[in-house]
Amino acid sequence: MVRLLFVCLGNICRSPTAEGVMGKIILDRGWESRVHIDSAGTGDYHVGELADLRARRAAKRRGIDLVHRARQVAASDFERFDYLLAMDGSNLKNLERRAPGGARARLLLLRSFDQSAPHGAEVPDPYDGDDDDFEDVLDICERACHGLAAHIAREHLGSE
Ligand code: 4NP
């Protein structure tokens, strides 16, 4: 089982969107028993909330239901997950600061799996934006998650 945790700041916009996009890829590929996904935020401001309504509506337009409730990153996540996938550089720095010595999880930017994205590319925070910004987040997550799925297939599932 490969375990992936998507991480942003509030866990109500970007990381639940990435989780939803990856969940659809997992279903499409029949990987339900092989890849486990979850999402979390570095901050605790929105713990317990559903994803932002704008994120849920945008995902729904692509046939994806976002049902996750926000939670904060926990120390145990660094042991339970194989990959912690940060949406931006600030999230990544925060995770690097919190990571216990010898933690098993690899800490990476989600967009590092998008071959077409420049080094260090981020998923931009749409919280203060409009519906177009949420559509952009979905487009970006789809490209990155397809790259991530190819990586998982190659490195962990012995295919592709
Ligand atoms: P997210 O977006 O990190 O993609 O979930 C945000 C959500 C909430 C806040 C900032 C970003 N906030 O400041 O409350």
Question: Can you give me a brief rundown of this structure?
Answer:
With 160 residues, this protein is α/β, with parallel strands linked by helices. Helix content is 39%, strand content 14%. Helix 2 (53-60) crosses helix 5 (131-155).
Q: Please, could you describe this protein's structure?
A:
The structure is a single chain. The chain is of the alpha/beta class and about 160 residues long. The protein has helices at about 15-30, 55-60, 75-80, 90-100, 130-155; strands at about 1-10, 35-40, 85, 105-110. Helices cover about 40% and strands about 15% of the residues. Helix 2 crosses helix 5. It has one domain (about 1-155): 3-Layer(aba) Sandwich (Rossmann fold). It is globular, with a radius of gyration of 14 Å. Strand 3 (about 85), helix 4 and strand 4 (about 105-110) form a beta-alpha-beta unit. The mean pLDDT is about 95. The longest helix has 25 residues, at about 130-155. The protein has a 4-stranded parallel β-sheet with strand order 2-1-3-4. The site of 4-nitrophenyl phosphate has 10 residues, from loops. 4-nitrophenyl phosphate binds next to loops.
Shape: globular
Order of helices and strands: EHEHHEHEH
Helix content: 25-40%
Bound molecules: 4-nitrophenyl phosphate
> Main β-sheet: number of strands, strand sense, barrel status?
4 strands, parallel
Q: Tally the structural domains.
A: 1
Q: How many whole angstroms does the radius of gyration measure?
A: 14 Å
Name given to the CATH architecture: 3-Layer(aba) Sandwich
- What's the tally of helices? 5
Structural class: alpha/beta
Can you tell me the CATH superfamily? Response regulator
Uncertain runs: none
